[in-house]
What we know:
This protein has 5 helices and 13 strands. The protein has helices at about 30-45, 70-85, 110-115, 120-130, 220-230, and strands spanning about 10-15, 20, 50-55, 60-65, 95-100, 130-135, 145, 160-165, 170-175, 175-180, 185, 190-195, 215-220. The strands form 3 sheets. The chain has a 7-stranded mixed beta sheet with strand order 5-13-6-7-10-9-12. About 30% of the residues are buried.
Amino acid sequence: MTGxxxxxxTFRPVADHALLVExxxxxxxxxxxxxxxxxRALTDTPVRGVLEAVPAYASLLVEFDPVLTDHAQLSDAxxxxxxxxxxxxxxxxxxxxxxxxxGDCAPDMDxxxxxxxxxxxxxxxxxxxxxxxxxxxxxxxxxxxxxxxLAELRLDRKVAPVRGVAAGxxxxxxxxxxxxTVTMPTGWWRIGASPTPILLPDPAxxxxxxxxxxxxxxxxxxxxxxxxxxxHG
Length: 233
């Protein structure tokens, strides 16, 4: 499947208080654009009973108050909303993330280079050239999943995960990239480290990224990484 089809979107009840609106089953720009289109439409034209909408790569989870509406009523309301939703731009922003690819910051660089058939410099160039978009949050606080890894860098996940990967690790797997925000296990490939704060000390805006934002990585050296780590505490 390559994008929305006449069979999509589909509406799937989740418990008694949510509806999952599915636009496809793969990571694709046109599918995620449809997710964001409905998400923005719900913001611009609130639907009775809707409490929250949570976007993912190919679906939107719509949570509602079961006292005010139900699955069938909400499905009908969302179908009407989709018929008039447009691609008007939302509040997308370009976020810049510093990234060091040197030495111990990139423990998997040699393996990535070997498996892709690229030199380490070519891996770095390809990663910097990616068109990254924040598609969803998951796994850990502030852990934003980015689509946009170029085809030449796409590798399957490792057979076995590595434990204790530190916050700030920049990871890739398939078409996805993320910056870890906590120490965690991962089977993704570690190609760099970033000092850019993703978790922010502001309750009104706890994360650097919003879903729909663009992300650009900026290469820095090891000295700049260590200095930034000191500055950010």
